[in-house]
């Protein structure tokens, strides 16, 4: 193997046994297959060490690893898109980077620098550009994550951390693709409390939602629509995406109160809606208000937004035996326009007026 030192000082050990032939690009399952390379950097004695890109592969860990026991870990989810054989677009990397450090601060994890982050992404995409799918609704999902790597069973912050970036060619996140998903509220569980960790991307938030999500699925719903933990009446998010309501000519998006993840696609949605002349309200909204708007005919559309989910129309909401049913095939015009605009910008078909795209020449 030959080691290359880039001008940005990321050591690169190229993969000499590509797994590209194992990828069925026409039937991509979300997050199941990975590109040939990954980024690694270790933190020890108060500073980050030498960044390295090496072949994707297993990581050796101790059974006493802090993360396995106490979950001191954060992650990001972002995407890169095929434009043409020389050009790949990364969507809003600076915003994802800033949210990653926001998550790190909350979880007592050392922050990282943008230069290393963006250089790592560029190098990974150049090395693995053949893994970026060319198919419709597909992208290269990028998963940066940082986890505590002390081998110590004492319940306190780690002193060592590992920072990885892996990438995965993906298709649509939900089985439904761009077709509407169905959501149910739950009285039994809560996702996050104000002052907790619901507004950061940390591992445990997701683990805690798996059982409620499984129960929702058994009852025939795609996902849980989370209500606030205190009063059980304000709509928060879906866990895998943020939620939006088009009521009359007003886009209502639950306000970030501290227990909702500040989605990057959520931000794109509110910016575009404002530009398109809609009233945009970021405020608390009760589930009762949503049902009232449905009953009086002003609830036009409900949809989710997220990196993995992109824009996902909601066809049905169940809450305590009552249902709002838009019909299984109903894709609202507004959600469709947002989907077309956002994906148009991502795939380079629509001009990037907002400076959301970071282009990589491969
Ligand atoms: C993302 O949208 O990137 C996420 O991290 C959500 C995850 C559940 C796939």
The hetero compounds bound to this protein are: 2-OXO-4-methylpentanoic acid
Using DSSP, what is the number of strands? 19
Look at the structure and give the CATH class of the largest domain: Alpha Beta
| Oligomeric form | single chain
Per the CATH scheme, the topology name of the largest domain is D-amino Acid Aminotransferase, Chain A, domain 1
Strand coverage percent: 25-35%
Count of domains: 2
* Amino- and carboxy-terminal Cα gap: 22 Å
Q: State the CATH architecture of the largest domain.
A: 2-Layer Sandwich
Overall average residue pLDDT: 95
Q: What is the fourth-level CATH superfamily of the largest domain?
A: Aminotransferase class 4, branched-chain amino acid transferase, N-terminal domain
What is the approximate shape? globular
Instruction: Give the % helix.
Output: 10-25%
List keywords for this structure.
D-amino Acid Aminotransferase, Chain A, domain 1; D-amino Acid Aminotransferase, Chain A, domain 2; eleven-stranded mixed beta sheet; binds 2-OXO-4-methylpentanoic acid; eight-stranded mixed beta sheet; globular; 7 helices; 362 residues; alpha+beta
């Amino acid at each position: 193997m030959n080691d290359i030192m880039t001008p940005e000082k990321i050591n690169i050990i190229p993969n000499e046994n590509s797994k590209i032939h194992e990828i069925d690009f026409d039937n991509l399952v979300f997050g199941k297959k990975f590109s040939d390379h990954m980024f690694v950097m270790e933190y020890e004695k108060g500073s980050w060490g030498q960044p390295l890109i090496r072949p994707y592969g297993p990581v050796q860990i101790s059974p006493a690893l802090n993360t396995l026991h106490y979950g001191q870990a954060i992650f990001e989810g972002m995407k890169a898109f095929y434009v043409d054989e020389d050009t790949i677009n990364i969507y809003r990397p600076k915003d994802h980077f800033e949210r990653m450090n926001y998550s790190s601060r909350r979880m007592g994890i050392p922050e990282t620098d943008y230069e290393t982050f963006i250089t790592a992404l560029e190098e990974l995409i150049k090395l693995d550009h053949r893994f970026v799918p060319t198919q419709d609704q597909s992208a290269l999902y990028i998963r940066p994550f940082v986890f505590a790597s002390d081998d110590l069973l004492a319940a306190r912050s780690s002193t060592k951390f590992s920072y990885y970036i892996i990438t995965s060619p993906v298709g649509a996140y939900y089985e439904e693709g761009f077709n509407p998903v169905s959501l149910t509220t739950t009285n039994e569980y809560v996702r996050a409390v104000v002052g907790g960790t619901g507004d950061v991307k940390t591992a445990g938030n997701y683990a805690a939602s798996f059982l409620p999500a499984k129960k929702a699925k058994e009852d025939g719903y795609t996902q849980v629509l989370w209500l606030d933990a205190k009063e059980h009446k304000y709509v928060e998010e879906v866990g895998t995406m943020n939620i939006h309501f088009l009521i009359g000519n007003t886009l209502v998006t639950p306000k970030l109160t501290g227990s909702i993840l500040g989605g990057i696609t959520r931000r794109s949605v509110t910016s575009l809606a404002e530009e398109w002349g809609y009233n945009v309200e970021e405020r608390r909204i009760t589930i009762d208000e949503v049902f009232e708007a449905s009953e009086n005919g002003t609830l036009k559309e409900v949809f989710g937004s997220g990196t993995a989910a992109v824009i996902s129309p909601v066809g049905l909401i169940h809450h305590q035996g009552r249902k709002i049913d838009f019909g299984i095939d109903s894709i609202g015009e507004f959600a469709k326009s947002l989907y077309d605009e956002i994906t148009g910008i991502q795939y380079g078909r629509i001009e990037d007026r907002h400076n959301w795209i970071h282009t990589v020449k491969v």
